[in-house]
Amino acid sequence: DVLLFIDNIFRFTQAGSEVSALLGRIPSAVGYQPTLATEMGALQERITTTSTGSITSVQAIYVPADDLTDPAPATSFAHLDATTVLSRSIAEKGIYPAVDPLDSTSRMLSPAVVGEEHYGVARRVQSILQRYKSLQDIIAILGMDELSEEDKLTVARARKIERFLSQPFHVAEVFTGSPGKLVDLKDTIRGFKGLCEGEYDHLPEAAFYMVGTIEEAMEKAKKLAAEAA
Question: How far apart (Å, rounded) are the C-alpha atoms in residues 49 and 176?
Fold first, then answer.
């Protein structure tokens, strides 16, 4: 069994592009080699599992100009079982790890694999975040006051979900000053389920930032209220 790390798969694409240019091939519309899909397929399909062994790969993918539709990353994504997309805009909000839950994907996110509750909560979280994303242009132009009461509630829950997705890592204690937390999967699902159902609408956004379980968020909210008083 083999664990294969590739850093960075984009370099493979660049090398193929240079070779293609030297061979005098006409590039595709974006400037990549015309054989990009074939070359990527030939490499990625060799990373597979058979009856005698398996190869598991972890690949870093550079995304040119943060464009996920660029042929280089898009061709790689087609062969992967799961993708974790790091977002510059989420990092700008100070939320770490800066994982984008809307662009990140996994074939394991299926009721048959993770169970009905886990799947349902995950999809509901994505739905709320997607609605918030679609409202951001309206908020930027007209402000929050122009939204309906339902949309205001969706935005408030989405902002809390974003902050609850932040994780205090043990390895980052030196940088953040916050102790690392290890949270069980069932506690994570329970916390997000409560957020989606509005059980914590009365808590401030700041209470959800860099905490572990939902109980810690409630404790943090009490501390913030005491400090404000």
Answer: 40
Percent helix, strand and coil across the chain, each rounded to 5?
55, 10, 40
Q: How far apart are CA 55 and CA 46, in angstroms?
A: 9
26 neighbors 34 (Cβ within 8 angstroms): yes
Whole-angstrom Cα Rg for the chain: 22
Measured in whole angstroms, the distance separating CA 65 from the mean position of its chain's CA atoms is 18
Residues 196-224 pLDDT 10s? 999 999 999 999 999 999 999 999 999 99
Taking Cα atoms as reference points, which of 87, 90, 81 lies closest to residue 68?
Answer: 87
Domains with residue ranges and CATH for the chain: 1-80 (no CATH), 83-229 (1.10.1140.10)
What the block records as the tokens of 131 is 């609605």
What pTM value is reported for the model? Answer: 0.86
Let me know: does 60 contact 7? Beta carbons within 8 Å.
yes
pLDDT in tens, 39-48: 999 999 999 8
